[in-house]
Amino acid sequence: MSWILLLLAGLLEVGWAVGLKFTNGFRLPVPTVLTVSAMAASVFLLGLSLKYLPLGTAYPIWTGIGAIGTVAVGMVLFGEPVTAIRLACIGLIVLGIVGLKLAT
């Protein structure tokens, strides 16, 4: 269950990171409320997952999910460049996440 909570926390991190783009500097109320809510929910779920997972494993995986998801959304929704070096870096993050999961 802790791993599921951590995955959901990571997905919410993607949501709030992307949501920041739509807040217009926190000037638009609805995107701002949604973004801040996703931030709070993400950190809350991360905290719950830390009851059973080591901090040194859970936190990097949380940030890795957020980083990979945010880069992917940027490429798909915002037309950000899809280059070999960006894909290789994503692959390295994935390898790190898998390694941390296997080490726990």
Automatic annotation (TrEMBL):
Keyword Endoplasmic reticulum attributed: no
Entries under SUPFAM superfamilies matching the protein: Multidrug resistance efflux transporter EmrE (SSF103481)
Membrane topology according to the record: Multi-pass membrane protein
Annotated keywords: Cell membrane, Membrane, Transmembrane, Transmembrane helix, Transport
InterPro entries: EmrE-like, Small_drug/metabolite_transptr, Small_multidrug_res
Subcellular location: Cell membrane
Pfam short name (any one): Multi_Drug_Res
Entry's transmembrane regions: 33-52, 59-78, 84-103
PANTHER family: GUANIDINIUM EXPORTER, SMR FAMILY PROTON-DEPENDENT DRUG EFFLUX TRANSPORTER SUGE
UniProt-recorded name of the protein: Guanidinium exporter
